[in-house]
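Input.
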Amino acid sequence: MSKLITVFGATGNQGGSVIRTIIADLELSKDFRIRAVTRDVSKPKIKALRDQGVDVIQEGDMSSVADVIKAVDGAHTVYVVTNFWKSMSAKPEILQGKNVTDTCRKAGVKDLIFSSLINASKATSGRLVNITHFDGKAEVEEYIRESGIPASFVMPVI
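Output.
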């Protein structure tokens, strides 16, 4: 029986890439069924995913614990990327990351994969400050590490 991977940001660059990679890889596509999470099921990209056999759910608000519960229910693995650019603030992004972490831990998810970035302030010994789109993701990574949930981290190049 294949394991379920829930992919947040399924129509974006990162989530879409994760899904395409799994579908294209013979071994991964045998090992994993994919649940794509979106806020808008009417997107053409969502139709294309459905046509490829991907399960799609419209529970894409990571600020809503109820949405996250539905999205990760039964998942072995969860891939999550938060979107700083939607609000241009780290606070909603940090809240979303914590919601997903806590919900995954309670749901027994075996691997939480988080798209992270370094804390620029710490990495530069304070020379670069207020790079909130980096620092917020770094705060979420730290929270995940402290939570005890099995996790992996990716740092995409820009």
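The longest strand covers residues 3-8.
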